[in-house]
Amino acid sequence: MQVQELLKMYYHIDCSLDSTGYFYVGGQLYYLSLVQEPQDFLNRYHYYRYLMHQCGMKGYEIVRNIYQELFTQGYVLLLYQKDHFSLKQYIHQTMMIYRFPKLKVQQIKEQWICKIDQAREKVKDYAYSFKHDQDIISLIYYYCGLGENSINILNYILQIDKQASLPVSLSLTQPFFEYVYELLNPCCYIFSTRMRHLSCLVSSQIITYVQLQNILETHYFDVYEIIYLYARMLYPSYFFECLLQDLLDEKKVAFFYQQMKQNQDMYVQMFRILSFYVTLPKISWINC
User: 285 in a domain, yes or no?
Assistant: First the structure.
């Protein structure tokens, strides 16, 4: 069943959808998404609702179908309630730590290595296919190199403490949001580290370097978190996600080439800011 038919049959909504999942009906913004693990989503959504409440916003609410069910054939329909958005309050609340087991740095390292290995395997697909694309192959090698640098920073943490771990909170899954309604979408959140969340905000240019410095001054972060933030800024998770899901069209390829040029300054700025609080391992092509 196509999603348009699903909306018409189960929600009495007749509209056309594009690939983003967002659409307007009667002046209201909706978002339709396929949910792989409904119970996991509901668990995150519970904390998301708490976050919105603490920020004084409504955010997104789940729309029940005509049978009063939250999910329809694996899909969830969300309705956005536009409200006043305070970036300061939002940042303060997203820096809160939940009482979950901490995330081990070794576990993060293993996940990152796995993604880098999978990315390298994709080179073969492009090298031996009829659409031999040198631009994408060059991108893969470049971003795998970035990933290796981020692994070296994790190794730096593990040399200090093999059992190093990081507190867990709600975090954005990826950077590059253009609108508040994208930033507040519960489908864009997972349980991860506060520093993953901060790296997404910096990469999206939602917060400036001055604002980042203020956050570091006004919130408590331990040494491992600050070092990890530098690794997180280097690790190209969004590129790997697009690559492994075969989403690297011409527009995305051009975007990532543009990011290569823009990120160089970001790495230098992040090193300058974070090295005020901790000793960071130097990377020759950044700290030259």
Answer: no
Both 40 and 117 in one domain: the answer is: no
112 burial via Cβ count (<10 Å: 0-12, 13-18, 19+): buried
Distance CA 220, CA 197 (A): 15
- pLDDT by residue for the chain (288 residues), tens only, comes to 688 899 999 999 998 887 889 999 999 999 999 999 999 999 999 999 999 999 999 999 999 999 999 999 999 999 999 999 999 999 999 999 988 999 999 999 999 999 999 999 988 877 776 555 788 888 999 999 999 999 999 999 999 999 999 999 999 999 888 899 999 999 999 999 999 999 999 999 999 999 999 999 999 999 999 999 999 999 999 999 999 988 888 888 999 998 888 888 899 999 999 999 999 998 888 775
* Radius of gyration of the CA atoms of the chain, in A: 20
Is there a domain that residue 287 lies in?
no
Q: Say yes or no: 124 and 169 in one domain.
A: yes
Same domain, 109 and 234: yes
Q: Would you state the structure tokens that stand for residue 180, as one six-digit string?
A: 């508040």
Whether 223 and 165 have beta carbons less than 8 Å apart is answered as: no
| Torsion over CA: 222, 227, 230, 236 (sign) | negative
Q: Is 85 exposed, middle or buried (0-12, 13-18, 19+ CB in 10 A)?
A: middle
Q: Are residues 245 and 110 in the same domain?
A: yes
Question: What are residue 23's DSSP bridge partners?
Answer: 30
